[in-house]
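Example S7 (structure tokens).
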């Protein structure tokens, strides 16, 4: 299994990340309850028991409540902060009254304000990694650079990265700052395979139907940028979610995942994660669940070995058609 770029940068991150998007209740203004705090404790405990020491947040998750409830966990367990890596994101803004739409915002003012809010909700003095959440068409790379360098100089953020960005967008940002972008978080799973098809559909008509930008993975690999995969378990379509009404390729792939899991005496979740982690870019899956049982089902995925033939069997099955 390939080495993660974060490890090459001497950042001791676990191979899996726990995504905290589901913590704190609903995406509304309802208050945090004792049950939400208990759920957060249970999720953190399950993650730590599975060897996970990295936790992924965003300022918008459950409208800030995910960070707040995680902050309550840290408040009740103060020794935990120095044992874990906390990553959060900024740049997405919700719609507001008077017709203001949902939008993206990489202005210096918003980036600084967002980080201050995250630190306050989490009850910590710094973020290990800050990601720019989604590309802002009005992004001024010089303004972004000033914001990031301000955060680094103040000690509020130690490292920076992006999410959902192309190689060109990262290169543009990097041209204006000496702070390296060390993470790019992208949607990747056995069901969402455009990142692979972009490479095998070169010089074919099939490429016209693929929206994943060619060269993104290669750029990240050349520049030691950690690829993180969000939604790596494909919302359960291969791990127990009813599939009878889904395409035949999904049903057949779910059966193949189950067979491999049985043969290797592991879980379907571990097979899906091992499939991602076999890729030479050193993918780091972000498992987005607060369910301790599902977190435990992912445990040990980094120990599962897939042969080249098994890896391709899963890929081709997911495609539903043979490779060109």
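Recovered sequence:
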């Amino acid at each position: 299994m390939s080495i993660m770029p974060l490890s090459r940068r001497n950042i001791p991150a676990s191979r899996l990340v726990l995504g905290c998007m589901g913590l704190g209740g609903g995406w509304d203004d309802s208050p945090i309850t004792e049950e939400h705090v208990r759920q957060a404790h249970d999720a953190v405990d399950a993650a730590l028991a599975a060897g996970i020491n990295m936790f992924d947040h965003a300022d918008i998750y459950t409208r800030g409540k995910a960070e707040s409830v995680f902050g309550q966990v840290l408040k009740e367990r103060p020794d935990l902060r120095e044992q874990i890596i906390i990553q959060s994101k900024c740049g997405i803004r919700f719609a507001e009254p008077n017709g203001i739409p949902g939008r993206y915002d990489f202005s210096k003012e918003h980036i600084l304000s967002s980080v201050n809010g995250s630190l306050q909700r989490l009850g910590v003095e710094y973020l290990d990694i800050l990601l720019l959440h989604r590309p802002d068409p009005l992004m001024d790379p010089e303004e972004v650079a000033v914001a990031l360098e301000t955060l680094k100089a103040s000690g509020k953020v130690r490292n920076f990265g992006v999410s959902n960005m192309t190689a060109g967008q990262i290169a543009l940002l990097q041209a204006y700052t000496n702070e390296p972008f060390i993470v790019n978080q992208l949607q990747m799973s056995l069901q969402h395979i455009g990142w692979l098809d972009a490479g095998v559909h070169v010089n074919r008509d099939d490429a016209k139907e693929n929206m994943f930008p060619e060269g993104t993975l290669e750029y990240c690999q050349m520049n030691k940028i950690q690829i993180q995969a969000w939604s790596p378990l494909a919302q359960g379509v291969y791990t127990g979610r009813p599939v009878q009404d889904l395409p035949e390729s999904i049903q057949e792939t779910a059966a193949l995942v189950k067979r491999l899991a049985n043969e290797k005496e592991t879980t379907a979740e571990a097979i899906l994660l091992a499939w991602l982690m076999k890729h030479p870019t050193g993918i780091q899956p972000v498992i987005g669940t607060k369910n301790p049982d599902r977190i435990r089902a992912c445990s040990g995925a980094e120990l599962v070995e897939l042969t080249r033939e098994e890896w391709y069997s899963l890929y081709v099955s997911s495609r539903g058609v043979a490779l060109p």
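Notes on this example. DSSP finds twelve helices and ten strands in the chain.
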